[in-house]
Amino acid sequence: METQWLHHLLSFYLSITIAISQYILSLLPNIPFFPSFLMTPLESLLSLYFCFCGLSSSTVDLDDRTTMHFWITNHRRFDKPNLVLIHGYGGNSMWQFSRQVGPLSSRFNLYVPDLLFFGKSYTKDTDRTDEFQARCVCEGLKRLGVERFSMYAISYGGFVGYRMAEIYEEMVEKVVMVSSGIGCTEEQKREELKKIGRNPLDLLLPEKAEDLRLLVNLSIYKFDLFKWVVPDFLLRQFAHHVMCKDYKKEKQELVEHLLYKRMDFDLPILNQETLLIWGDKDNVFPLYMAYQLQGHLGPKSKLEIIKDTGHAANIESPHSVNELITSFVLTPSN
């Protein structure tokens, strides 16, 4: 009992430290050594937290062209199910799952990949499809000795996760998808893009302060990260060094593939039990897309809606998301 209490205390301390560090970063003045002087310690702090949660960094060469990076459980226990976390577009797995790995690592053997061109994963291949991403993740998991797993994927990661469940059906047990607009029609896509009123590439790879502000406002409902005045020059530098510095061209090609490819009118129905989690205030993939996807998947799927939550449910409502994932995956299949 004392050991468990100490674990929760240290986990809480590290989470708060990370949050405070990120906030301080947003208020620091513009200095020439911004990326190397500040981002490296923050990345190190996140790495320390992942290690404290029982994970270690592992790099897998799939061939001489493609390398996948994973955070993997140090001690795989056979009384715990395997859970793979697939991040969305924007940052690597550490930034997106810092609120998840602590609680989930106590119940699951975690495997957390960086998708291609995020973090330490990359390829010389020119294929930018979600199918290629899916194959790289699953082939990497095979190299790590993971034969069966359930999966939790968010936003862009949901497109990748859907293909994983389709192509590697024998590996994927249960599927959890959060805020992922899979199966929307061409007309729906045009209408949602029209509402934004901007080129999505400008928001997802922002170079201007107003683009980054708009991206945050679209993703977050409960609170405004920039309600305190943050200078535009600092936002520009943050956007450049954190979101656009590495593999910008390749990240742009990933977005273009999703934006301009024809919708899959023969979207397969997954055979796995699937849980959809959605914020009722999602302005990126509105709630009607959740009902639409649930209707497509049929009786093996269910939808959980989190109130007063936007697109970034993993950030706004992490406790609810973690509880829903844990309950769904650990409940025996019908």
Give a description of the structure:
The protein is of the alpha/beta class. It contains 14 helices and nine strands. Mean pLDDT is 83; it is low at 1-37.
Identify the notable features of this structure and list them briefly.
334 residues, alpha/beta, 14 helices, 9 strands
Query: What is the count of helical runs?
Result: 14
Largest sheet properties: 9 strands, mixed
Kindly name the structural category: alpha/beta
Global Rg: 19 Å
Shape: globular
Give the integer mean of the pLDDT values: 83
Weakly predicted, low-confidence segments: 1-37
Structure summary, number of beta strands: 9
Query: What sequence of helices (H) and strands (E) makes up the elements?
Result: HHEEEHHEEHEHEHHHHHEHEHH
Instruction: Bin the strand percentage.
Output: 15-25%
- Helix fraction? 40-55%
Give the helices and strands, then pairings.
Blueprint (H helix, E strand, L loop, with lengths): L1 H26 L6 H19 L2 E7 L4 E8 L8 E5 L6 H4 L4 H5 L3 E6 L7 E2 L6 H14 L5 E6 L1 H12 L4 E7 L7 H11 L3 H5 L4 H11 L12 H13 L3 H13 L12 E7 L7 H11 L3 E6 L6 H4 L1 H13 L4
Parallel strand pairs: 3-4, 3-6, 6-7, 7-8, 8-9
Antiparallel strand pairs: 1-2, 2-4, 2-5
What is this entry, summarized?
By secondary structure, the chain is of the alpha/beta class. The protein is 48% helix and 16% strand.
